[in-house]
Amino acid sequence: MAEKHGLDHLETGMSAIATDPQGKDNVPAGHIPVTQEERALSRALNRKLDIFLLPFLSLLYLFNGLDRGNVGNAETQGFTKDIGAHSDDLNLAVSLFFITFVLFQPPSAAVGRWIGAKYWVPAIMFCWGILTICQAWIKGRSALIATRLLIGLFEAGFYPCCVFYLSTFYTRFDLAVRIGLFYGQYAVAGAFSGCIAYGVFHIKSGSLETWQYLFIIEGAATCLIATVAVFWMPLGPGSAWFLDKQDRAYAAERMRLDHAMYTQHTYGESGLENNRLNRRDVIETAKDWKLWYVLFFNILASVPGQAFSVFLPLVVKGLGYSSINANLMSVPPYICGAVGLYLFALSSDRRKERGYHIFVGLLITLIGLIITVTTKRHGAKYAGLCILLFGSYVSAPLTVAWLSGNTPEPGKRALVLGVNGFGNLSGVIGSQLFRPSYAPDYLIPFYVTLAFIAVALAGYLAYRFTLAAVNKRRQAKLARMTPEEVEDEKLNPQRYGDRKYTFMYGL
């Protein structure tokens, strides 16, 4: 076997690395098991991670989605009126939430990389859980805005930290389907939130308003699960409590092999790099053209998913449902979103392709939007919402998997995923689009969103062709180099990670 099975082998150096067995030139080389024994070992390891790690992280994200979107459910019960605010103040508060949420993603992701997601993720979860509980007793516009700003501050680092954390356990073409399952909890959270709200809003006894019980129950549950996370999450693949000694060694070694052609590090017993973040990581992230290229289109493509995480119950209410039933009827579209995301992510990993999968997902979103804005019948509009959400959750997680797989240097990857969090500016756009003044049909917001998706669809296609052109130029350059020059290019630190001529971008 090419892999070594002792922790004492986790040092700097090169080991045998498999390239794509199908001989494709659109994927970077990395750890792809070749022998039957290697494949069985890798599958068994993934199965253990899928049982003990991925579902738990997905549960954390479920509570993240609940605490972010529950103000939309609360508003169906007169939340802003009861606290002495105006309905437009909720749109402003949601917009400002995304300001702190976006601005603090890179620094929060950097802190998570520095001290470890094992400690940082539970800490920020507990803080926003307390703030969610506090929302039950706020009064006035200022308190609403302040609370949402603080929740945005603490939630900022959660997603990039967790995605980077997953990328230290799963190799690049095992990652998208896991990110899909993880990110899918955002859609599931919408469905789950609707179910919880439907039950909680039937509480008629007690001295509190029904929306107050919603904040208290969901915030307390977040604090509880955050406490459990401190003990459940391992620091890295080499210290996972649910793996035996041989599995821990192999888990750490295969991650080293996955990037060994482009990065050189020393490793600790946890399987993580000893030098986790440096100045060059920051500089290279700022200069990374492929990140800034795709970011604009990621923002546009994410508008439907971000907007409907909060405002879908209000949009459904506009179709003629009562305030309580609107929360229940928001569940099926969210389920469609989760199913669509999982199917696309699974196909993306199996085919080792990202760009066309995102393109098709956006095309489905566009079709759903067209149906929603052109039909007059409520049933057809509701079907359009289901189609719309089926495709709208695809682009964001596959973009993350795309950037992650194309950024082999771990420190830079953590920062790239943090900066990619600027894609959540779509939440600011969405919260300003779906204003009460456009109720009940929200036609203008839907038309604007349709235009955004059309531009994003063309942009992602252009991005894929640009990466393919870069690969073609690199292949031509490598063809003119001697074997000694190629080997020197792999080891020479002059070009960093994905900037090396030997690195081919995944498409």
Automatic annotation (TrEMBL):
**Coiled-coil regions listed:** none
The family database entries (InterPro entries) matched by this protein are listed as: MFS, MFS_dom, MFS_trans_sf
One Pfam annotation reads MFS_1
Q: Name one GO molecular function term.
A: transmembrane transporter activity
Give the membrane topology, semicolon-separated if more than one.
Multi-pass membrane protein
Keywords from UniProt, A to Z, are: Membrane, Transmembrane, Transmembrane helix, Transport
User: Is Transmembrane a UniProt keyword of this protein?
Assistant: yes
Major facilitator superfamily (MFS) profile domain span: 53-474
Q: Where are the transmembrane segments?
A: 90-107, 119-138, 150-170, 182-201, 213-235, 291-312, 324-344, 356-375, 382-403, 442-463
Q: What is this protein called?
A: Major facilitator superfamily (MFS) profile domain-containing protein
Give the originating organism: Cladophialophora chaetospira
Q: What is the lineage of its organism?
A: Eukaryota, Fungi, Dikarya, Ascomycota, Pezizomycotina
